[in-house]
Each structure stands twice: as structure tokens, then as C-alpha cells.
Design goal:
Blueprint: H1 30-42, H2 51-70, H3 76-88, H4 93-96
Length: about 120
Amino acid sequence: MAKDPQRYRGRSEPSTSGEPVGDPPKHLNTHCKDVWHDLVGSLDWLQREDRIAVEVASIAIGQVREFMKLGEPIPASLLAASNTSLGKLGATPTDRQKVALPPNEPEDDPFARFDA
């Protein structure tokens, strides 16, 4: 149980557009654009308002992939930045639990009338 359950009681979530993230910015290199597509394809809760966070994660992870491709050691700071940016997007097992998704809309069941 939380120490102070009333702590966040008065807070409300900012409204969001509900629009998809969209395509990566043109200035990203190929590695970063690949990461962008991976993230957007895997994290279906991301919205247009998340574009900057997705860009930061794409750059960090894209750079990690470039170091790996070259067989170079990956700087610890770059790994930390990648991990942090993934966490901010809810893309780690621990952080995924914190993602607040809207409730699923009930589907129209054409056979619901027979359930009674």
C-alpha cells in the first residue's frame, strides 16, 4: 500500500489526441528510423504526443546498433540512455506495468441476445 494514498488524488491526466505516432522524422539515419518503426510497431499505446520521446529512444538505440555493427565497445552512458528512454516509453517489463491504457470498448456481439 502506498504511504500516502491521497497523494495523487487531485491530479488528472492531460488530454491527448489519440492520433498515431506517424512516420519518423526525415533527419534520422537508417538505423534510427528502423528503431522508430520497431518501437511504434511494438508499443501500440504510443500517440502523436510521444514523438519526441520516441525520437530520443530511436537515436540512442540506433547508436547502440551502429556500435554493435562496427564491433566497437558500447559506451555505458549510451546503454544507460537507451535503457532510460525505453523505460520512459513503457517498453521494459517493469515499466510496462505503469502504462495506463484506456479500457477496451466492448465489441458488438451479434449473439448477445441469445445469452439471456
